[in-house]
Amino acid sequence: MSVLSSIGRIATRYAATRARYRSERILLSLPAELRKDIGVPEIFDVQYSPRAGAVTCSAWVI
Description:
With 62 residues, this protein is an alpha+beta fold. The chain is built from two helices and two strands.
């Protein structure tokens, strides 16, 4: 395992995580009625957020 492959793997994981958080922020910015119409469940469950280093409300619940 070379250093470059490790850096590439870390960069890929970082990009995927940023895309996931960006998508979540976009969906949460929509009005509740619109989220319900397109099938996005409400967010109530608590999940550990490694980005914030604390417990946040970011788990999907149906």
